[in-house]
UniProtKB/TrEMBL annotation:
Membrane-spanning parts: 179-202, 209-231, 243-262, 274-301, 307-328, 335-355, 361-385
Keyword Nucleotidyltransferase: yes
Enzyme's top EC category: transferase
Keyword rRNA-binding (UniProt): no
Top-level taxonomy: Bacteria, Pseudomonadati, Pseudomonadota, Gammaproteobacteria, Lysobacterales
Protein name: diguanylate cyclase
Reaction equation(s) it catalyzes: 2 GTP = 3',3'-c-di-GMP + 2 diphosphate
Listed GO MF terms: diguanylate cyclase activity
PROSITE patterns reported in the protein's UniProt record: GGDEF
EC number: 2.7.7.65
Domain GGDEF: 430-562
Keywords linked to the UniProt accession: Membrane, Nucleotidyltransferase, Transferase, Transmembrane, Transmembrane helix
Length: 584
């Protein structure tokens, strides 16, 4: 896992193209390029070595040979290693560039007759830099057949396997541009996802997006350091010399963020609660390592360095198990996590195995890790979008449940009052009618035919009222067998007309009971909105009108008429609008 902070590599024969156009992620492999055949040999450096002595040993065949086209690891230890790269015929006397891929963290010195050139990712003094690889422009004075001597300088970080290529200048520029396009696309995708996540974290106040942004940002930082993208072309000179430390911190933090993110994203609390404890411990442990590494205290730094890789491996296994368990137990998001994260985990495992000499021909794995990061960012973003959509559906559903009466499915009293208040407060003054409906002798229905029959009656009445009212009218269940309807922009005569229709409709209903069917009737009181009215006062007047409708025989509509007697002299406030024939 040390590979995470020390390595990266492109096989120049295979070029990956990665681009994002509105979520389309393209991945392509380029063509094989003609390169000069090379032979290689190396040995560990020893005190007192000189250019001449090492080359003499090389000519005498005393160095260990290797194939520069394949990944090979050279111990850096306390003295470093000598590497000889010998171009083979046909020799090319044109302008040539020697490249080392992936660009290792420590420096490499090219020792020629007259000078020594140092190649390093974070070296800004040299006029020429490779992108995503170390590059050395072969001087025109050096014969095409002359072996090139390199010294892999000592470095505290684990040495990563590298491959070598000797290319013509044009070929080099072509590949360099290709890599820049590829890497820029991958980083652009990751950073776009990070920005999106930060915006969502702030607007939705959902910390899951923040953990995700932290995780992808750290991963982009790791890749930026490993590939050298932060140094060339981004020219972050401030990072010079700090790359191993910043890289290690980014690795530890990325695991911490990934742990916190996956816990919420995969809903571990619901699907795998027991795994939450070790995952939180992992996140805390990783953060501790960052603090220890940056403490500057030698002992703590060393302990942190020792613990980093084992913790990384344990953490990766833990997150994988947790995601699999959550997915198996029904977490939809866990599938997104597995699809996005597993390829990256595989790539990390493969590149780590390369440190021990496995898969020397798969140099492109390092570029694939970069593309894998972009792929993961896109997949996890899709997962987050899916999650946000689901949460919104759940929210809407809960809202519907909270606003509606469970039995009749019309608005409940609270929701009705809220919406009625909004309606009364909205827009220019206009006539608004409130109808208060109370079923007649409902207790008798319950008592004689049971509560279930009563419930069925309430459901049927609600359906009938909904069918009879306009879609824009508000209808709610106000109490047991009481309903309230609010009719916007409705004159008294129109309200009476509607109420009469409702009255008739309810009376036409036949509620099935054990021994046949039961007819219902409803008494309705109407009140018109007046200046300064609120819901309570309006309901109060309509209730009074309904009460008088009950007192005057039920199954009828009364309009609260502001104390003006119409045809009910004993009840000056009330106005009998209709009296049904069969209720006389
Ligand atoms: N089945 C059923 N009955 C309910 C529900 N809510 C209230 N009730 C009943 O509705 C009846 C209301 O009775 P009352 O307030 O006496 O009114 P009423 O019998 O309709 O008489 P009037 O209103 O004077 O015509 C009571 O028996 C309540 O138990 C409900 O959700 N389901």
């Amino acid at each position: 896992m040390e590979r995470l902070i020390t390595l990266s590599t492109p096989d120049r024969r295979w070029r990956l193209w990665c681009g994002l156009v509105l979520g389309l992620f393209c991945w392509g492999m380029g063509v094989a390029h003609a390169v000069t055949p090379l032979n290689g040999a190396w040995r560990v450096a020893a005190p007192g070595d000189t250019r001449q002595s090492v080359l003499a040993e090389y000519r005498a065949g005393k160095l260990k040979s290797f194939d520069p086209a394949l990944l090979e690891r050279f111990p850096r230890g306390s003295t470093g290693s000598w590497v000889v790269i010998a171009p083979q015929p046909p020799w090319d006397n044109g302008e040539r560039v020697l490249t080392i891929y992936p660009p290792s963290m420590g420096s490499v010195t090219v020792v020629t007759d007259h000078q020594s050139d140092t190649l390093a990712l974070d070296d800004f003094s040299s006029p020429m830099h490779g992108h995503g690889r170390l590059a050395w422009r072969v001087p025109s004075t050096l014969p095409a057949s002359a072996p090139i001597l390199l010294k892999f300088e000592p470095s505290p970080t684990l040495s990563a396997p590298v491959q070598f290529q000797l290319q013509s200048w044009d070929e080099y520029l072509h590949q360099d541009a290709q890599w820049l396009v590829f890497a820029s696309a991958c980083f652009a995708v990751m950073l776009a996802m990070v920005l999106m996540a930060i915006c969502f974290a702030l607007t939705l106040r959902d910390v899951t997006f923040a953990w995700y942004a932290g995780y992808i940002l750290c991963y982009a930082l790791i890749q930026g350091i490993q590939t050298g993208f932060l140094f060339h072309p981004l020219d972050w000179q401030e990072l010079s010399g700090m790359a191993p430390m910043v890289g290690a911190a980014a690795v530890a933090l990325s695991v911490a963020f990934a742990s916190l993110f996956m816990m919420r994203f995969c809903e571990l609390q619901r699907h795998a609660p027991l795994l939450q404890v070790p995952i939180i411990a992992l996140a805390v442990g990783m953060t501790q390592l960052v603090l220890m590494r940056s403490s500057g205290i030698v002992l703590l730094v060393e302990v942190a360095q020792t613990l980093l890789n084992p913790l990384l491996m344990i953490g990766a296994a833990l997150l994988l198990v947790a995601a699999i368990v959550a997915a198996a137990r029904g977490s939809r998001q866990a599938w997104f996590f597995l699809i996005g994260w597993t390829p990256l985990l595989l790539l990390t495992a493969l590149t780590s195995a390369q440190v021990d000499g496995a898969f020397p021909q798969l140099a492109w794995l390092n570029d694939a890790s970069l593309a894998g990061g972009a792929f993961e960012a896109v997949v996890l973003s899709l997962g987050l979008a899916d999650r946000a959509l689901r949460l919104r559906h759940d929210h809407d559903f809960v809202r519907v449940l909270a606003d509606h009466d469970a039995l009749t499915n019309v608005l409940n009293r609270r929701a009705l009052s809220e919406r009625a208040s909004l309606l009364l407060a909205s827009g220019p003054p206009r006539p608004i009618a409130l109808l208060f409906l109370d079923l007649d002798h409902f207790k008798l229905l319950n008592d004689h035919h049971g509560h279930n029959a009563g419930d069925r009656a309430l459901v049927e009445v609600a359906k009938a009222l909904v069918a009879e009212l306009r879609p824009g009218d508000l209808l709610g269940r106000y109490g047991g067998e009481e309903f309230v309807a609010l009719l916007d922009d409705t004159l008294p005569q129109q309200a009476m007309h509607v109420a009469t229709r409702l009255c008739r409709r309810v009376h036409r209903l036949e509620i099935p009971i054990d021994d046949g069917s039961q007819l219902l009737s409803v008494s309705i009181g109407i009140a018109m909105r007046q200046d300064g009215d609120d819901v309570e006062s309006l309901v109060g007047r309509a209730d009074q009108a309904m009460y008088d409708a009950k007192l005057n025989g039920r199954n009828r509509v009364y309009l609260y008429a502001d104390g003006t007697p119409v045809n009910a002299p004993n009840r000056p406030r009330l106005h009998v609008v209709e009296r049904r024939g069969n209720d006389r």
